């Protein structure tokens, strides 16, 4: 196994991002359209948060009724903003951070994605799925 491989070798570079002023309905559309579980939240070029599909499900959990499910979800989504729901105090890594270091960070925390930042600019995202795929490629 390559011990010093940088995270840039496995990170997602073609990013789907959301602006901090966008609404949660738009976020839900992005999650479903791109089959992703994490979306970096940006203000201009700067990453200011991370929104996970789990975060979105937590606020939409209010739809415990079967009838009018979409109506309830829309109302709940309109009650919150992306900024209110996103994770704010992000741990960030650089493209040179090793995959081993990323694995250590993710294994000790309760989140499953890290933004990859270079010179204050978001250049990628690495997830636990990226790590698992890297591990599987080693066999």
From TrEMBL:
SMART domains: CBS. InterPro entries: CBS_dom (IPR000644), CBS_dom_sf (IPR046342), Diverse_CBS-Domain (IPR051257). Pfam families: CBS. Gene3D superfamilies: CBS-domain. It comes from the Bacteria. The keyword Nucleotide-binding does not apply. This is CBS domain-containing protein. Residues 11-67, 86-139 form the CBS domain. Keywords: CBS domain. Transmembrane segments: none annotated.
